[in-house]
Amino acid sequence: MTDEDKYQARAQRMITRWSGQRMPVSRRETAEGEVLRHAPPAVGALDVAQQVYHEPAKALPVLTTCDVLVVGAGPAGISAALAARRAGADTVLLERFGCLGGVITTVGMETLAWYRYEGTVEGEGIGIEMERIAAQMGGAIKWPYNDSQCLDADFFKVVADHLITEAGVRPILHCMAVDVIFEEDGKRLRGIVTESKSGRQVVLAKRIIDCSGDADIAHLAGASYRKTPKDKMLGMTTVFNAAGVDTRAFLDYTESQPATYADWSRTWAQETTGKEDTLRSPYLDKEFDTARELGVIPADSTNIGGSWSALTPAGEATNLNLAHMYGFDPTDVMDLTRAEMQGRQEALHALVALKKVVPGFENAKLRNFGMTLGIRDSRKIMGRYNLCSEDVRNQAKFADSIGIFPEFIDGYNILILPTTGRYFEVPYGCMVPLEVDNLLVAGRCVAGDMVSHAAMRNMMACTVTGQGAGVAAAVSIRQDKSTAQVDLHGVQAELERQGVRLH
Ligand SMILES: Cc1cc2nc3c(=O)[nH]c(=O)nc-3n(C[C@H](O)[C@H](O)[C@H](O)COP(=O)(O)OP(=O)(O)OC[C@H]3O[C@@H](n4cnc5c(N)ncnc54)[C@H](O)[C@@H]3O)c2cc1C
Questions:
Q1: Which among 369, 403, 427 is the end of a domain?
Q2: What's the pTM?
């Protein structure tokens, strides 16, 4: 019997079944292999009145043991893992999704260094390395208005795989950190509990770096943190990509209607230093007013507007950062659920508006949404040092500097671009939680106020704290000192050896 005959026979059997005729069903065992069954769990106690369930105690297998465990593989986590490994530590990088990259690959945010207008002073280090290697591997396109690169978000998965494999970092994907394990003193961390398809397991480590974006590990360990009130939090965004775009017609349109950073003030009362106002910006906003006036999208879709980014020769417009949502808490599962669904709806409104109003998008279609909602604002630890507005606006210097970041502030209605060559130093102290030892926190959840967050949340800044934390964790093991006590001279010497600019 040919394959086609087999398909026809199967199809005929199905048709016959739908039409109500009974067919004999084979009861023969067809699957090979033994029948499996997981041991049923011990019975816990459900307290219906209090609406809680008391889990029974369980013995959890150790999945692996390492020197440095990095939780979360965004820009901070990748940098932390590479830096720790390059400083000689056996390093595990654990990530809840199936790819590395964090907001880059899971949200679709390509613009690692869009702030780099003329005059910018960079910190060098792993962030710059990531941008350069992505470009060399053919996974980036020039950003429209300066010499920075738009990373191809999907391709960056491969770039990140390559970087960590080359360095000898041990990855664990599809694995979420859900609890922490302390040494007997109840102060120094010893490991984490994970959840995955393999069940609940344990990863033991001498040092842990929390790069979860939400300070999950610090939170689980009982470290103090702050969260911006929900009504003041930076918005969440559903980033999407469109195909079928006539990119030439769209570029002609943007040239005929040149947007600048002053245009951002149409919807936000935005503070700049003035020098930003005349710079070109890949911004779309008034187009959505037109769409609302035409009745193409609902009148209450007022949080649509923002930036476009790469235009590819394949007729794609990627990283459309246009559909924003406010008033949701990223650490509340029901808020996340509502925001995900609302975000998709708003993104489709944005696409319909683009198709109707913006030249070049007439035949566009949705290529894909980012695989998850984009979060900008979440838990921030209370650190040994809490960065403040004054620091990031006034070129702060610190004896415990682990790197520099240009004077780039983007958030809470402030936009300052680093066109003057100004920069500030990033202190080790903003990664050191107060109550828990052998834990460092890097990336967007480092300690600081709202204005400093508008600087430190940026991906390149996250790579600075990531690399600083990775090196500090490895050096603290070498020195046989905890992360709270590590000698910073050793950390700074290793960072300089890795090519980081400290001052
Ligand atoms: C829509 C949007 C647009 C932005 N635009 C820009 C921009 O143009 N330029 C710029 O520089 N910055 C931009 N940002 C900010 C920047 O992308 C983020 O602040 C930055 O990516 C944070 O890096 P991170 O490594 O700290 O965290 P993330 O990139 O959020 O990575 C955290 C990683 O940890 C994983 N994780 C979380 N919890 C756990 C857990 N419990 N166990 C295991 N893994 C876990 C996550 O899956 C994720 O991979 C934007 C952000 C958003 C949301």
A1: 369
A2: 0.94
